[in-house]
Amino acid sequence: MTGGPAASPDDAPEDIPEDSGRPLGFSARPDLQEAVALWRRWLATEKRVADHTLTAYTADVAAFLTFLTGYHGQPPSMNTLGDLTAMDFRAWLAALARDGLIPASRARALSAVRNLFRWLDRSGRLHNAAIGTITTPRSKKPMPRPLTVADAATLLEASGAEPDAPWIGARDRALFTLLYGCGLRISEALGLTRGEAPLGDLLRVTGKGRKERQVPVLPAVNEAVRAYLDACPYAPGPDAPLFVGVRGGPLNPAIAQRQMQHLRRLMGLPDSATPHALRHSFATHLLAGGGDLRAIQDLLGHASLSTTQRYTDVETEHLMAIYANAHPRARAKE
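That's the Tyrosine recombinase XerC sequence above. Prediction below.
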């Protein structure tokens, strides 16, 4: 796994761009210093990466080589890189974690180092198979941030107020009531046609991967959609979009996002109050009311139960907050 053939004349140091002579912020043997400088030139001139990407990759590789200097007690060389084992790479990632780097930052650092090793391999300088066995650190998905039951009810009521065009208020209320009442993604709701309007007891939804599911339709959803259809000035055929814009064309998701932004400013809600938060609220409120996790998975159209299980964390967090605020034993002693 040690170094490959010698560099060709085209790779001589005099071909390194002027800026590569600047200090790179790490200690390394001359052969490795030269290789890193050539790699940077390749990124800048052949790959044409953005300046901020070049800076970030250089910093990540410099930090990696600095770690190796302390890890081995001497500046690394090309042979050092060739002899690294999977355990060495994992020790580096563990050190980054101890230093407080979040998974996304560790993943970026690994991507930079992998890029260097791929270039060294393709250019015939060095091959190390161990780095290919290292798993990229996974970022934890952000926790769903649902609305409270009271905020959801108030928001749906407020969404119907549109003094300049009452039918638009009826449309927004119908859309948001559908998202919250049936747990739809906004793309699923906006993909419905007039013929698929949720006016009965069940709604057939086509979700991700063209996977179909059926969800129950609450009377409140029926009423909101009927009120919108009665008020809407456009009456296209059954294959036309259910939710339309001011000119009768398909409603743009950005319009719904903008209306939600307006509502949350009026109500003093956090930035997490988005149309998708209504779907989160649907799942969280069902779970809080005793809903079965498997049933909620089916209603949401999740392929994996682990995705739905995130809502159990939300509910547990809520219960712990109630406990901390209400239980006498949870209160700090005066």
